[in-house]
Protein: Low specificity L-threonine aldolase
Organism: Kitasatospora aburaviensis
Amino acid sequence: MTDPTAGTDAVRRHDPAVRGFASDNYAGVHPEVLAAIALANDGHQVAYGEDDYTAHLQDVFRSHFGEKAEAYPVFNGTGANVVALQALLPRWGAVIAAESAHINVDEGGAPEKMGGIKLLTVPTPDGKLTPELIDQQAWGFGDEHRAQPCAVSITQSTELGTLYTVEEIRAIVEHAHQHGMLVHVDGSRLANAAASLGVPLRAFTTDVGVDVLSFGGTKNGLLFGECVVVLNPEKVRNIKFLRKTSMQLASKMRFVSVQFEALLAGDLYLRNAGHANAMASRLEAAVRDIDGVTVVRPVQANAVFAILPREVSERLQKRYRFYFWNEHTGEVRWMCAFDTTEADIDAFAAAISEEMGRG
Ligand SMILES: Cc1ncc(COP(=O)(O)O)c(C=O)c1O
């Protein structure tokens, strides 16, 4: 094997043996993705997306999402969401979303600040909207005093590690469209959903009428990069202008595009996501019977949510990185990544058991 540190003055400053469960973006880059970046290096290519990799990427995305799909690579997920949502709304528009949606709780107000977008949120038990829940905010059409609900945004898989079924998304889209609203899917973990549902990506997006998608790469093995994927180009227009004015247009776009090619041209997206999901199931199975640990949400993708005594979590955090999801209830979130190993899970579960035993 070649020495990965050869030929550089940079020094490795971290311990690669340290693993955690804080987020799937704590992981590094999948070797096949790194190899793809190297492949695209050398020589000159036209900047700002006029390169051969971005041109080919359109075919790659069409093979997954259908002939009308258009892919617009961007830097990050917040940017993808802000760009996609702006394209769905007039200046007086609003987006209906779950209260727990990333766009509401984890984007620092970027949709509001950068996109000028009003969010109309709904509390949900499991991070999932339904037509009935959407109706809590789908009112006041034509009333100039109310920001006009023009779009619905759902997340698949959700921020709470749950999944929409194909039929649940179909029902949401039908309902939204009946009210004249377009539908955005935050697919930061869309591949985890496809792996878990065992259906093609298009089955719960294009085929059920979703209009636009933020397709995630970073959490599934890319160095960085997400894609705004337009599925309904008749209704979702001008992404290229919105991407530039939202500061999401990469000049060296070939290096984002080639990463998505590595992920999506074969089955790497499914291998990575399926593995992360399997590690979350393994973790759930390993902690389920530990006295005092309660897994509080269905484990349907790559996240496990649990409640255990706060002092135990705090001691555990000195050994492994992870976050409190809810400071009030003491609920914690454990995320698995494409590179989480069975040994990582077993060692973590043993540490949980050990710390519980210490009371
Ligand atoms: C559901 C969801 N959407 C979008 C994002 C994108 O975030 P970022 O802007 O950090 O790439 C994340 C990252 O945590 C996420 O969990």
Summary: The chain has a mean pLDDT of 97. The CA atoms of residues 49 and 253 lie 5 Å apart. The radius of gyration is 21 Å. The longest strand covers residues 148-155.
